[in-house]
Write a structure and sequence with these properties.
By secondary structure, the chain is an alpha+beta fold. Helix content is 38%, strand content 16%.
Length: 194
């Protein structure tokens, strides 16, 4: 399709995108997850380096992920982490039936700087979100306030140069009332130069 040919259905889909809040079963099938991940591979990527990888967490692995989240908080906060906070952190692993962890995995390149590679890896979160939505699932991108602890490094097999950008939770969105997304204030957020 020529790039100057309008597709109002696609535009409307993009204009109405919102993050999912309560995500439940059913989750995407293995084949649907493959499709979602394939779309993540289409993000802008100077040099086609693919400076990212994904860890798909579902079923029993969510318990290990929850334990790794708690461990990271404990390693960061030590005795300052109170007993009420631990279960809240652990519960993050069960906020969706499937979680796709986004790992920034930089590639040694004399031409493409690290910031550009990280920008590319960050784009995959939005691509995962849109791909899940296009297949009829709800999705939400989450991040974590702490450095990965030793359990997370083990679980995600993080190399020293890699780090976790966050994760996208995917599932069936529970029905809820939604307010329309507030339009972007172009006077504040855009400058047109002619």
């Amino acid at each position: 399709m020529p790039t100057n040919e309008a597709n109002p259905d696609v535009y409307q889909f993009l204009a109405q995108r919102q993050s999912g809040s309560i995500l439940i079963e059913p989750k995407p099938s293995y084949q649907e997850l493959q499709k979602i991940l394939a779309i993540a591979g289409t993000v802008p990527d100077h040099g086609a380096l693919k400076p990212f990888r994904f860890i798909i967490i579902q079923n029993e692995a969510r318990k290990k992920f929850g334990e790794a989240l708690v461990n990271a908080a404990e390693e960061a906060k030590g005795s300052l982490l109170d007993e009420k906070t631990r279960p809240k952190i652990f519960a993050k692993a069960f906020a969706a039936p499937v979680l796709i962890v986004i790992i920034f995995s930089p590639v040694d390149s004399p031409r493409i700087p690290l910031w550009e590679q990280q920008a590319s890896a960050s784009c995959t979160g939005y691509a995962l979100d849109l791909a899940a939505n296009s297949l009829g699932f709800g999705a939400v991108w989450k991040n974590f306030a702490y450095e990965p602890g030793h359990l997370m490094k083990q679980l995600c097999q993080l190399k020293p140069e890699e780090f976790m950008l966050g994760w996208v939770g995917i599932g069936t969105e529970q029905e809820r009332e939604r307010s329309p997304r507030e339009a972007l204030d172009l006077k504040r957020h855009a400058v047109f130069l002619d």
